[in-house]
């Protein structure tokens, strides 16, 4: 996909050198750049293949995400190392993954807020996190702490079921005063996850997150929430629904999380229900692909050129060629939906599903950020006669997100190491012509 932004040019001559008589009338030709920011529990992901006996030994519940203390953490890690069960160690965190992938896709700045060990030793978990994070992710606003960051063990059994064991370290001690108001309010989006609400005792992460959300809401900056895990939402779905309606503009979830918060197992119906609370919904549905839902002003609606699809909502993709808008910006808001099947039918062999949803969300954020970028630099463009949320149509964004997540499914790391190709080998030359 092509977005407005820096491009590689092959001009030999200095084409940007202006005539001195003309340049005085154009004193400011520099492009204005924007960024997105996010808050995360800074962790390193440790992936290992285990059996049920291993989970029972450490009293871990299969398929769930659970917090473990430092004693169990050290024993668990020692056992994994001793038996050579560790397969990969990566920089992790759902928001950290999303921001990294966004910066790789957009080749542009994002800002990560959280904590980082003040003293970093080579080979330590903090060192691994820094080494595996894109240089385009701004880490200058991390709050230093005197102690370890978090560790997340992803334990995969023979069926592919993932069990998460999280050692918090000091990752939940981000303080509200560490949130820079101007940084949040000048960003194009604020990204948070449901995990940030799971704190206890004297941990301050939840208060810091709510401070940032308040700043974003005051300035009209879109708040993007990714739900993270169905088990967390199932504990109090009513509270989460009220939280989303009050504070969130864009909601990202998979079909299980969607069912937990809306009560609908069908991802299309879950996305439709979520539109009662937010302006834009992303719902990944595994082998079924991805569904998106949003609003458009009736006068700006565009009908699809694709066949109308059956589903829980009849002909739901009718207006998928429309660009998404905030409901509050519409005089006569119309709900629109789209669906994209997995890219090329999905990979022949899925290496790891961890991070695929984060990468899909990164692609959506790239489109949203591209719209802000274009509006800042070409404010008089006819494209902005419609006060849209996104740069592209809902259908195009969905395809882009699906394509990006494919790259994560065919590799072990939840983080992209490179952007998408300019041209796809899977498409005939006639497509590009």
Automatic annotation (TrEMBL):
Its cofactor is Mg(2+). Pathway: Purine metabolism; IMP biosynthesis via salvage pathway; IMP from inosine: step 1/1; Purine metabolism; GMP biosynthesis via salvage pathway. InterPro entries: Carb_kinase_PfkB-like, IngK, PfkB_dom, Ribokinase-like. It is an enzyme of class 2 (transferase). The keyword Acetylation does not apply. Keywords: ATP-binding, Kinase, Magnesium, Nucleotide-binding, Purine salvage, Transferase. SUPFAM superfamilies: Ribokinase-like (SSF53613). GMP binds at residues 93-97, 198. Gene3D superfamilies: 3.40.1190.20. Pfam families: PfkB (PF00294). Residues 134-294 form the Carbohydrate kinase PfkB domain. Its EC number is 2.7.1.73. Belongs to the carbohydrate kinase PfkB family. This is Guanosine-inosine kinase. The gene is gsk.
